[in-house]
Amino acid sequence: MSAPATLYRKLVDSHTVAQLDAQNVLLFCDLHLMNEYTSPQAFAGLQEQGRGVAMPGQNVATVSHIIPTHPARYRVIQDPASALQASSLKRHCQRHDIALFDTNDALQGIEHIIAPEHGMVRPGMVVICGDSHTTTYGALGALGFGIGTSEVEHVLATQTLVYRLAQDMRIRVDGRLSAGTTAKDLVLMIISRIGAQGARGFVVEFCGEAIEALSVEARFTLCNMAVEAGARGALVAPDQKAIDYVLARAPDIDGLERERALAHWATLRSDECARFDAEHCFDATQVAPYVTWGTSPDQAVAIDGVVPGAEGAQRTSVERAQRYTGLASGTPLEGLPVQHVFIGSCTNGRIEDLRAVAQVVKGRHVAPGVRAMVVPGSGAVRAQAEAEGIATLLVRAGFEWRQPGCSMCLAMNDDVLAPGARCASTTNRNFEGRQGRGAITHLMSPAMAAAAALTGRITDVRKLEPLQ
Ligand SMILES: CC(C)[C@H](C(=O)O)[C@@H](O)C(=O)O
Ligand code: SF4
């Protein structure tokens, strides 16, 4: 019998083509996703060397980061440099026979939303992309991680990657999240406790009652943000929920193939006595809505908390963050005025997120002076929200209803905030200038962002006055 193994090691071992040395393996990648931002240079490198794409069918591309999100059906990329990125992605995909969700494709969207949505990501896979939030796919028991541009080139040419092994971390979350709290609050709390480098060098497996109780979409949010604690990957062992999610989107898995897949997926869990290099435990019943106050995702507190004091080892970074966000030690987060609200991104731009927003907004209106924008994660999410009446509800309430894309998550298109503007955002990074030079980002859940839009202040969604 082989030694007990973690799920992570099982995934690595089943994809190892060759052991290069004690630390590195040559890893086979089942699925390689690309965007217009990090792949054109890789294609150019390939072309220079006269190399082709080894397995075009295992590569998929989308235009996501620089795309305009104005409501107009037909989208034209005005910025010349961005237009060139999109057109060169298209040319390379055509040339190498790679599927592309192009600018005006009805199903275009953020890579981390569209790949699972179309059943491309399955338990047991290795999925890579020139984008750090590729950790998202761990929600389905697939090992996802971001790679650099030179690696993108290597993957295109060989469908393999030189991979440095990570260590194993387990994060167990007992109990259940209480009403008004979500996977976003949980992950913000975890990051605030273990730090932005707390999982550096590790692949994190999440387990426990709270994780089992999460929907698959909520697990995407959790695994998406694990990278903000420095994790090199995040995993949740695939259960019936994950399997049902995949089977509903992958009609090609049927008959004998289905039997085979189910048998394989049943093995995708850490063995009973598997050894983890580090472990953490949290209690979901203690999770409150969380909000960031600073310029790193770990600078977060519960909604009834205050901006912490600048002391000890963190002093310089706390002081710097306080200067940037204009918040002194002791300032309560609750009640802080915001001028902008952004709902979207690969963290919280899925249909369940928009349903949560609609539930809070129903019967209410965006506060005067607040600009609130909803950018669905994909064309499919947008269509679904329209079919469910969510779009109409939000527009009537005063929200802007946009076309899909990364948008104000990192402001690489023209959705950019003015200096000094304060934004309640459902995204994953609150770095300086992320949403516009001098703009201030407060990360939170979709329900909390909705509440901020309605009151014009950072608000505990659990305390919103009931409607008469
Ligand atoms: C542009 C891309 C390389 C980047 C990433 O790797 O994550 C972006 O998606 C982000 O969220 O900051
Ligand atoms: S939505 Fe934001 S975090 Fe996600 S891929 Fe786009 S820019 Fe990166």
Automatic annotation (TrEMBL):
It catalyses: (2R,3S)-3-isopropylmalate = (2S)-2-isopropylmalate. Catalyzes the isomerization between 2-isopropylmalate and 3-isopropylmalate, via the formation of 2-isopropylmaleate. GO terms for molecular function: (R)-2-methylmalate dehydratase activity; 3-isopropylmalate dehydratase activity. Its cofactor is [4Fe-4S] cluster. InterPro entries: 3-IsopropMal_deHydase_lsu, Acnase/IPM_dHydase_lsu_aba_1/3, Acoase/IPM_deHydtase_lsu_aba, Aconitase_4Fe-4S_BS, Aconitase_4Fe-4S_dom, IPM_dehydratase_rel_enz, IPMI_cat. Residues 10-456 form the Aconitase/3-isopropylmalate dehydratase large subunit alpha/beta/alpha domain. Pathway: Amino-acid biosynthesis; L-leucine biosynthesis; L-leucine from 3-methyl-2-oxobutanoate: step 2/4. This is 3-isopropylmalate dehydratase. Its EC number is 4.2.1.33. Keywords: 4Fe-4S, Amino-acid biosynthesis, Branched-chain amino acid biosynthesis, Iron, Iron-sulfur, Leucine biosynthesis, Lyase, Metal-binding. Heterodimer of LeuC and LeuD. The lineage of its organism: Bacteria, Pseudomonadati, Pseudomonadota, Betaproteobacteria, Burkholderiales.
